[in-house]
Amino acid sequence: MRDAMQCDCLKHPPPHIVLKRAAVQVLLLAVLCGTLSGCYELSTSNGGAETRFTPPRQVDPSDIALPDGYRIEVVATGLTFPTGIAFNEHGGIYVTEAGYSYGEYFGTPRLLRLEPGGGTTIVAEGSNPPWNGLDYHAGSFFVAGGTVYPGQILRIDPDGLITVLANGLPSLGDHHTNGPLVSKDGWVYFGQGTATNSGVVGLDNYDFGWLKRHPGFHDVPCEDVILTGLNYTTSNPFTSLDDRISTGAFVPFGTPTESGQIIPGGIPCSGAIMRVRAEGGPLEVVAWGLRNPFALAWSPDGNLYATDNQYDERGSRPVFGTGDLLWRIEPGAWYGWPDYYGSIPFTGGFGVPDGATPYEQFRDGPDESPLQLLRDHPSEPPHPAAHLGVHSSSNGFDFSRNPAFGHEGQAFIAQFGDQAPEVGKVLAPVGFKVVRVDVDTGVIEDFAVNKGKTNGPASWLKAGGLERPIAVRFDPSGTALYIVDFGVMTVNDGQTTPYPGTGVIWKITRTGGAR
Q1: Residue 513 neighbours by CB distance under 10 Å
Q2: How many CB atoms are located within 10 Å of the residue 215 CB?
Q3: For site-directed labelling of 500, which of 53, 217, 401, 487 has its Cα 20 to 30 A away?
């Protein structure tokens, strides 16, 4: 009788058992949806910028974890949005302050000399922020900048005299003219980011502020391209939400395109690495088809490398799940933007193609993948040297050259950290640390990261470690690695808030022990 009753209950369970089973099924579904990309809409974003901060910033080197045999110390505090560091032939340390931050903070860009004890002396000031990056060559400093006015490459003498080497660069959009790097033979290499996320001017650019200031601005290719004629329809923020307007690729907002339409290339162009002589002269294109080549560095074997910030999940043509890239730059190569992620083309259409994984779909939803904007591609893009974290904002970097520091030939990369949810959702903070990369294998390992049960910026962890590393550089001896920490920048309730005076310069040295 007991066996019969149990069997009957399994076939026709009473209501209280049905309810319990339903509750368990809902719980299991929630757990599964938390792990499966197809259910990602159910989870809220939890990025490192989604925190509350009250100045002053805490600074405590003991809150930073390093490999055995290394130590970190504070060199300077109280900086406002530092972006680059360089050293002269006498060992002097110089830093750029951007004078601008996302969140529409506008100030004065400056070149500072760091004094013993942490003080600063102003070497030069500018009027066209942000000043991005810094390099020193043959007695002069080199800086990239500009979003108020078109971008520039500047040479700054030690007495503060500023000479414009290149002007009119397309830096008025999402991404700016980025850090210069001077070669031994006197060429100033620099990166120029794209105006948009993925080739189409949209409402995200209006929200960022620049479309209001420059309604006719858009991306410019380095060579002629032929369009597929794909257009995106949005509301018109310049009139009313009821007014619908269509926009194509590589054209101003509200301009539709046609299949087969040719967009003329030009120099300067967006999404490219270019160069100019240290004494000035015409621009030359080194490589193009990049999204935001933020920083450049020479490897010990003489190759040029670049970090490239990848697509966000925003705007008219959002792209999901693309981590930042480290490239070895091949002169004349095209690197795939806006139709590739690294060497992988966007699939276009709907559904997962044979052999593809959901990650390779770059979808903005469970099924949809970005359509291609270009009818013909200049070439097949090269393969990246490394794939970095999605939304990690992997930026300034340098190569180790001295066995006294260790990891010779490996790249050390500053990861600024996510700006979620503005750029897309993350389930936990991404970036906010320094990683090292074996460029031969693409293997990435943490090098300097905040202590805690999970990764995140110091403000998120309520501690005194790293906030937003934006650049790293070895001193001329190669025995000390300096970290440029931009400072606190939060993203809450649709508002990006940067905090002036929270920037820090850190210094890592090797004390012995295991590598």
Answers
A1: 9
A2: 16
A3: 217
Q: Give 351-363 as a DSSP string.
A: SPPTT--HHHHT-
Q: Rg of the Cα trace of the chain?
A: 25
CA-based nearest residue to 84, from 477, 486, 502, 400: 486
Q: Using one digit for the tens of pLDDT, what is the confidence trace for 459-509?
A: 999 999 999 999 999 999 999 999 999 999 999 988 999 999 999 999 999
Pair 268, 144: CB distance under 8 Å: no
* CB neighbour class for 183 (10 Å; exposed up to 12, middle 13-18, buried from 19): middle
Half-sphere exposure of 265 (CA within 13 A, CB side): 13
Strand order of the sheet with strand 120-125?
A: 82-87, 93-97, 110-114, 120-125
Q: What is the mean pLDDT of residues 70-91?
A: 97
Average pLDDT over residues 208-227: 97
Quote the tokens at residue 37: 């990309």
User: CATH top-level class for 61-510?
Assistant: mainly beta
Give the model's pLDDT for residue 21: 37
Q: Where are the domains of the chain?
A: 2-35, 61-510
Residues 294-323 as b or e (16 or more Cβ within 10 Å = b): bbbbbbeeeebbbbbbbbbbbbbbbbbbbb
Q: pTM of the entire structure?
A: 0.89
**Cis amide leading into 338 (omega within 30):** yes
